[in-house]
Every structure is written in C-alpha cells, then in structure tokens.
Amino acid sequence: MHASVDGFRIGYTDEGRGPPVVFVHGFPFQREVWRAQVDFLKASRRVVAPDLRGFGESQAAPDAVSMERFADDVHGLLASLRTGPAVLIGHSMGGYVALAFASRYPRMLAGLALVATRAVKDTPEAAAARRATAEKVRAEGPRIVVEAMAPKMLSPGNADAAMLAAVRGFMSPLTREGVIGALLGMAERRDATGTLGRIDVPTLVVTGADDVLIPPAESERMARAIPRARLEILPDAGHLVSYEREAEFNRLLAEWLAPIIGP
Length: 263
Ligand code: MLT
Known about the structure:
Elements: E1 2-5, E2 8-15, E3 20-24, H1 35-41, E4 46-50, H2 67-81, E5 86-91, H3 93-104, E6 109-115, H4 124-140, H5 143-149, H6 161-170, H7 176-187, E7 203-208, H8 216-225, E8 229-234, H9 241-244, H10 246-261
Parallel strand pairs: 3-4, 3-5, 5-6, 6-7, 7-8
Antiparallel strand pairs: 1-2, 2-4
The chain binds D-malate (MLT).
C-alpha cells in the first residue's frame, strides 16, 4: 500500500484489526525485515509497517533525513490511517526514530519497544565515518553498505548461509539517495538520553547478547533511565535479534503487548 505523506510517497503494510502496533525498520532495511512479526501478530492485532523515506517503496529525499523527519513521516502515516495511539517498535535506526517520535508525539504513544538501539548520538569519529561512507556510496553505489553491514547483523557464531542471504534480501531494494539521506541524518542526530526519563509508557528494551553493532550495554543504560522499562537480552542473538531469534522475540513481544493493548 502507499500513502502520500508531506508530499512524499510512503510504502507501508497495514494488516489486522485493533489498536496499532507499528514496526519501524533499521538501516539499511525496508519493512519486509518485520515480515515474521507482521505474520505472527496480524491475526490478533493491527500491524502497520512503513518503509522509511528513501527505503523499500518509499520515495527518497535529496538531502540528509533527520530522525525527526522520519518520525514525522510515521506520525503523518498514522494520522492518514486514523489509527489513534500506537505501540511503536523500533529497531536500531528505527529506534532512533521511535525515540524522536516519543519526544514529539507523546500523546500518540501507547507503548514503546526499543530493539537493539541506543539513545546516545554518534561520537565525532562515528559521524565522520558515516559521512565518509555517504561519499563512497555517492561514488560507488549502495551495495558497499550491504557488503559492510550484512555480516554484522547476526551473532558472530552464526554461519547459517540461508539466514545471511535473507538478511541481504531485507536490504533490497536500496537507492543511493535513500542510503545517503539516512547516513547523513544519523550522523547529525541529537542525543536522546535526556528524553528517556520523560517516556511515560510501558517500554520494552530488548537486544541480542551478541550484538556487535550496538553493544547491549546501551540497552542496559536506556532501561535504567526509562521509568517503566523492562529489559530483555536474548542469548545467541546478534543485532537483527527479531529475525535471528524470531520465535523467542515474537513470544516476548506478544506477552509484553497483552497488558498494554489487551490479549
Ligand atoms: C541499524 O541497524 O539501523 C544501524 O546499525 C544503526 C546505526 O548504524 O547506527
């Protein structure tokens, strides 16, 4: 499905009925990365999953896309679907977006799941490295990002070739503009640490114990700072914990959701 949000074409999935559970993908993915969760929940829940601006079926912007801009797009989509308050689930970059959404639209938030993500902004070195990658993508195309990132999405001990192929599939299609816009947006993103204490909804902070992209210590720090947080660190799981440990992740999500939006 497609909607026009702020004059941009946004691709999205909207299945099932009831209060919405909204899945926001990470970088450099698109909404299909949540397929297992959408299929698992849609019989009992309304599930919405947008492609962020510049990814999947969503139109790209020419410049840096801030986390606030992505959050505004998610909010604009929910407004156009007239969903009412949502439980937002954000993975990694999607978590940066979910934290921006929580700050900007607290009344539209019924619950928050922060998956393999962090509140801190980039260090100057990390921001410089992202800008350098953006330049490389401008010159060589977005596949270099797939080559660099796909192997880091699963736990280091996981040699399952089919899983790695699936991870690469979730990173397609990619456009130069989409990848550059998100890289530059992440490089300039604000530190959200100071906003955590104001999050006033049930919050699930979950990550994989073997995440090599964002250390689990970041999740522990966020969970300590968010008043109604529950922390879960799943063993034998890397950065893309929702895919690598799909069954455990889905069970956890369903159990956590039940008291928030009903069984
Ligand atoms: C992601 O999975 O969204 C990225 O690893 C986030 C990042 O690069 O900070």
